[in-house]
Amino acid sequence: MKLTGAQALIKSLEMEAVEVMFGLPGGCILPAYDPIIDSSIRHILVRHEQGAGHMAEGYAHVTGRPGVAIVTSGPAATNLVTPLCDAYMDSVPMIAITGQVGTKSIGTDAFQECDTVGITRSVTKHNELIMSPQDIPRIVREAFHIATTGRPGPVLLDLPKDVLQGTMEWEWPETVDLVGYRPTAAADPQRIREAAQLIAQARRPVFYVGGGVLKARASEALKQLVEMTGIPVVTTLMARGAFPDRHELCLGMPGMHGNYTAVTAMQKADLLIALGSRFDDRVTGRVDAFAPGAKIIHVDIDPAELGKVRRPDVSIVGDCRQVIEEMVKAVRALDDGAQPDRTEWMAQVRRWQEEFPLHYEQGYEEGDRLKPQYVLETLRDSTPDDTILVSGVGQHQMWSSQYWKFDHPYTWVNSGGLGTMGFSVPAAIGAKVGRPDKMVWAIDGDGCFQMTAQELVTASSERIPVKIAILNNAYLGMVRQWQEMFYEERYSEVYLSPDLPDYVKWAEAMGCVGFKVEHPEDVQTTIDKANEIDDRPVVIDFRTDSSEKVFPMVAAGQSNDDIIPGPTPGRKVVQ
Amino acid sequence: MAPRPKLHTLVVLVENKAGVLARVSGLFARRAFNIYSLAVAPTDDERFSRITIVVDAEETPLEQVTKQLFKLINVVKIDLLDPDDSVERELLLASVHTEEGERSELIELVNVFKGTIVDVGHDSVTVMLAGKPRNLDDFEELVRAFGIVELQRTGRVALPQLDKQAPRLRSVVGKVS
Asked: What is the ipTM of this complex?
């Protein structure tokens, strides 16, 4: 069967069971847009290419399937660089398809030409410039294989216009044969036995669970291992929901803005069992002061993570689910799974929890400002417990992670590694497309919202009913917090104004329903109204207290021992 | 002369495709690792090229470099060669200024090092020397006195040292010890 390169591309995507792609056409990618009309694949027309990338990410986060973004050459490709880097940092499976100038024009500075493969090389797991239409099915097949196996990540395919227009003989490769890519050998059983022995000796162990557990779809296995051993769990920003927050062994999020118990339990532990986590600087604080008394078991599918930051005592290369399942067996094989007496350790953990809970105070008097944490708690208690929560980057992101209760995997979508402001609106749209059966709320800051809000036009026109809660404190809040704490309250270029833009009018102009909430007593009723709307997006402009800061906090470059619990009345920091 | 850095050699077998060298060198740049020398050429199998990268072992986290390199899809195999367990060679070309009457002295030096004169000009000669990198270092130092006009080294290539014992013999040794 003879096909054009463009037809082969779309057919290859169909063969990979792609159901939706996010994109925006232009000159060089034009040929690929013609067969889209006849394809089973739904195309969502974005308003900015960055939106396409983050939507693909949001889709991938909640479905586990690779998100697909398709855009043209030059500026469209460069607009994809941020989402690609975001997906690379957070190991999100994604396929980016970019148009390119014709093969004869490459290197001539042609109109809308850029060196897409060169520019994106360091922000993709792999990328490829396709030079012949005949290669399209094989390279598409390889791209999906690379994006979804091993440590997942974004793969970019660059397609010159003449390659899309040329003809080829259709043939779908049955297998993938990449001589230099053989991910995931089964984990070494000896190492797993060593890990089980360390666990059986540990008096103060903690499971340090990272995003790899979600990527490996290992939540069930993890729960079994945790309940069997009775060891408490922290879930990093990328792993929220991997273990239920309401479980008695869950200590919540560790790190710079983690809660006191999670941070301190890791500091005082004698064993950290790191599962798909990478000792990120936002978790460890000053590395040489991080968990000084702890032995380390480190499990990761990416060998390069083992020993990158902290030398493990037992390092295990493998898929988290397989390794955890094997660990369950190995632990059981030792003395019938008997664990040492850790009553004292758990009692200590409970004392920290009681002494240093998360804390804020919402006043109800005239003139009391609305607290962002109050908005989050009210929203949390007014939505189904499998609601997907998406956030941007900054204070609102930390409060979301702190105050929400994630009891199910794949219900939390955020930009962790890269910290991309503007992530939430498009990512929420992608998440809702992937899971239309679930309620999707985005928590956004006013600064973030202004970066990508135009995608709500996409959401309105495609009837994707996402809900956006802007915690509008009229500031770039996290920067403001640092300037207050570390720059002697010298506020430099952080004020944004609560009224400019008018968020309600802006929401309405984009086809959404817009609400504004200034007082605590209106929070519940407005959220209830928003939850009733299911035919279009909703935006709520919550006017929150700009003086509110995120606590606990470990200042940048400091030891986690120096955690600042926050201005809780009547409490002192206990070292 | 500055103390010689402790060098390690990474022999990286890659797919012989466009842009692969850029991926490898880009990874070094991205992770802030320094390359001391680099040599690239196709192997006997035209599907593959071999990149020989020499790094300063004291400045470079070799394990991390190797693991990161191995993540590149086009990288097929990596051998980390210690200079003590490998055969390393390099080639040097140097145009050397020769004053009246110095030429025979230079030729003598070249002969000692088993080099070759490959070009002769009216006041200079071009010398080729292939050998162990250390010998090249020594030669470079000695020839400097004549006045180097231009000097170019290829960067080293290396292969692992071969087993010196026949397999049968080795297994006997294993049993005894």
From this structure: 0.89
